[in-house]
């Protein structure tokens, strides 16, 4: 083979990619083997890894990464093919041996590709199947958004590619995303299905044959099915070949898998039994020995470099394309086709046999091009370094969007936090500065009811093509004037909350992906955060940056009934890493916290931010100074500072501020110096507290935590009544900070319809409940 010959012949390219396919299969298998059988174990636990899932994809990944992929393309890799991605970067010189050897160990390469933890470039983290696929559709929408705004030259558009397992096609979020993608006319998206017809537990349903084509084509996708490899196609053209093809087409998935595992003799026996009497079949089969017959029968499209290259070349336009690449799970390994091979692993004897068959000498297992001989190794290395993907630049470091020192507080003696949020956004839309221009809003069909309408009226919907507001044109009165155009800044989504969170995640990765920082603001009814929770977690896991607004929340949705009242979202906010949860009570807090969020979302050590808001208009407080502001950002401030000898405080979060204040006013007569603490972020307070506690073990400097500081205004034997329209556990822990007694109020049962006085009384959130709890705790020793 003369791989380095310039210009390269197609045949040379194919040979090089085939050789690389073998390298990837070997290195991924050895990486898993090393972690399980070579590396010393200390805990007796299974390490794991997926040799069969990797082998299923190595041809596809070889053809893609070393030939078809361009530097501007981005790929989400099937989670359990992670070792193949690392092997690719190992061949490219981007990954160290040390990392491979520490696969699944602390600080080593991760089980599944991770943007934040892996040391190789990872475009999209994957792990929870389906999400990594769907996010590529939203990334292509983000790319279109930037192109439309002139922030990315159209000629630099990349392809957003998902390499997916076929069982991922069972995930509902795939179809939610297909529908949304169709509405937005997405383009430049490739989904390549590793169609091995095996999931974790079993072989997949034969009934689905061709159904995926229908579904995807209906949604505007081109479907390219790569069923047969070139060798098979050649055999089908020979006498008897048609019968063989028909047999393959009718063979149930499970039978095909079992025969693959059994090998050449089994194939022959079965084929002879089924179609041996058909004209020319016996002769056709006789022309292959058992090994060659096994090879022929498993020469599926996804294992044939030429077939893959032809398919990639045929999709060289912007039409979203799904490739159904037929493969064998465990191809080329003794595990091939076995239904239990998902977590199956070659035993030491089997991997040594594989090593020997590849001419790799003992001790040379990690050699990137081991067993090939010096010349071939050099040629292959040169081929790899010439692949377009090798020239991929590092991820962008987008300039920050300036955030002013203050965002103006909306005027009004009575306001809700949701109204304040909408007004502040609308003011930003009017202002016309970089901050307003960088904001992108999105909502799953709740744009109006979460108060994004004002922003959208000013900035419009994002559409690649113009979209007229028919009602407006017909002069039908409506508060919403929504025209869609390329400069629009609101991405309208259907109800599916999974899509909403994936949209936020894709927008929140715009800076590293495309070099332009966007400030995504997404609104959703607070209770329906749970509908997209895995996608929210997924976005946070890869450190995408966005502002999530859950509104309305809690019992303030009383008129909507129990199914609409969020109860445990404060705990979600506290429990979700890479997401700071705040729940302001007053409009000026909303302004301070939104400003903080826009800044925090952009800081390297920052995170996404979640604001839990509501529609309850409450009297605003007058401030005598702005000393509270910094504390509000830290998570809480004394609305009424306790006196030095006070032994009690009421602690509240969010919309029940008036009840907390009323209770305080009643109680302060009997308890002079009673404190009133407004916790703007149970999340930050808790995290600061546990970080201080952990400092001794984490080796960090034990900085005093904000909650320690706040509660040090009270003696240690003081008592607290805590109250939140949500799970009481969000605040009850405060007693543990300095050993205080606590009476926690909050909702811990499903809601029901009712007005606020009824509901607050029923769920014990009204002033009387606070006073009762206080009396019991503070006064009756
Ligand atoms: C949401 C989710 N559920 C379950 C799993 C566990 N899991 C990992 S891989 C897998 C099956 C994958 O099959 P397929 O996508 O066909 O990939 P293959 O290994 O066959 O290439 C399952 C159920 C997961 N990772 N994510
Ligand atoms: Mg599969």
DSSP E strands, number: 20
Q: How many DSSP helices?
A: 33
Q: Report how far apart the termini are.
A: 90 Å
**What ligands are attached or bound here?**
thiamine diphosphate, magnesium ion
Summarize model confidence as the mean pLDDT: 95
Strand % is 5-15%
Structural class: alpha/beta
Strand order of the largest sheet: 10-7-11-12-14-13
Radius of gyration: 30 Å
Principal-axes geometry comes out as elongated
- Mind summarizing the main beta sheet? 6 strands, parallel
Sum this structure up briefly.
The protein has 781 residues and is α/β, with parallel strands linked by helices. It contains 33 helices and 20 strands.
What does it look like?
The chain is an alpha/beta fold and 781 residues long. The protein is built from 33 helices and 20 strands. The chain has a six-stranded parallel β-sheet, sandwiched between helices. Strands 1-2-3-5-4 form a five-stranded parallel β-sheet, sandwiched between helices. The chain has a five-stranded mixed β-sheet with strand order 16-18-17-19-20. The longest helix has 29 residues, at 10-38. The chain is elongated, with a radius of gyration of 30 Å. It binds thiamine diphosphate and magnesium ion (MG). Magnesium ion binds next to loops.
